[in-house]
């Protein structure tokens, strides 16, 4: 369960961070400077939770290893949204949400429920249903009852209301506000509390990290809810930030909410940059992650820092902000970036970012690009920096009985666990600064761990 602490993965992942600048490059040598202590243990020592948003179907292989070992809380990125759980009226699909909850329980993690009342990712039967305000109120009540009730006792905190404000601090026009008025917020909190009195209930929004009109509107709302005795336990500051733009008033803002008597969570942290990433940007990103986590660490009531996807390949950013990406602490292939070490250091870790390798090298990286019941597709990328190849062979040993069934862009042979793949006639040459990939399908059962590959 915590195999990353001693096994291949953390060691090699940490070593990969040394090459995290720019394109994803990979070392085959073991790390000289592995992060010794998982983020979750560093956070726990400070009385904090460190979480990540996850996609249920990916909770296997290297992704599952990182999610399970480094984080003490999981937030379903999409699986608990209304459109996911009730795509057709009265017909529920809890598959992915259940899967994430089960994974979290197996890994002694909290779950942050996300989200009950939002204006996005609602089912079309709801948004196009022509319901009256009274009907919408009762549909919302039922939805909260059903979902919170289903996971009663299993969810540490719920993002009950998501993104209720405009940038100027006025209420956002949504199906909820437009039909029910601002009272929908107090009602949603009250209904959620009735369904699970032990869950911490949050209002969550973006662009509320610094002190400004929007965060002040949130502040005033929380103060007024508290004064009315509405069950509100915390505020979520999403923190979808831009490189070099961590608000200077972040800690002050966290503190003013804490002083109101509510918890604060950084719920969706990512820090996007223009792509491609380079070492200057990645160094700045490390400083930015570190300052966000340090601001939370400095305030007792800031209880949780959650990243919105831990790996760049699992981030919403490139799809929404073309030209931007690399916003998370791990690269596309689950290698920790400098940002990872920024988080670790802010949590009291003594790790240092591994230095860039000296001299040139060609390296090979193995990833599982997709996986199903009994099969998977793998990919190996050879990359050269300061060196080149003419003709190559990549070797590895499968650790769990996997078998290659078909390969492309390489000739692969397998004998027992040992696999050897050599270049095809047309891709033997890998120039300095270039890369070559080949792929394969394989079978697996039980588990499908990522092997260590060596370049022969
Ligand atoms: O599941 C479908 C898939 O079947 C289809 O092939 C594919 C084609 O586009 O779309 C898939 O759905 C996507 C879904 O994510 C799951 O990947 C949607 O198009 C896409 O719009 C959706 O984006 C999500 C976004 O919320 C929607 O607003 C992101 O994954 C999710 O990370 C993001 O999360 C939000 C938080 O809930 C609230 N705060 C902001 C944050 C970032 O937008």
UniProtKB/TrEMBL annotation:
| Signal sequence interval, chain numbering | 1-34
Q: Might you give the EC number(s) for this enzyme? A: 3.2.1.8
Which reaction does this enzyme catalyse, per its entry?
Endohydrolysis of (1->4)-beta-D-xylosidic linkages in xylans
Task: Show where the GH10 domain sits.
Answer: 36-346
Q: Which residues form the CBM2 domain?
A: 355-456
Concerning InterPro entries, the annotation shows:
CBD2, CBM2/CBM3_carb-bd_dom_sf, CBM2_carb-bd_dom_sf, GH, GH10, GH10_AS, GH10_dom
List the Gene3D superfamilies hit by this protein, alphabetically.
2.60.40.290, Glycosidases
Keyword tags: Carbohydrate metabolism, Glycosidase, Hydrolase, Polysaccharide degradation, Signal, Xylan degradation
Which GO molecular function annotations are given, in alphabetical order? Answer: endo-1,4-beta-xylanase activity; polysaccharide binding
Q: What residues sit in the active site?
A: 268 (nucleophile)
Q: Does Signal show up as a keyword for this record?
A: yes
Q: Which GO terms describe its biological process?
A: xylan catabolic process
- Supply the SMART domains for this chain: CBD_II (SM00637), Glyco_10 (SM00633)
Family recorded in the similarity comment: Belongs to the glycosyl hydrolase 10 (cellulase F) family.
**Protein name in UniProt:** Beta-xylanase
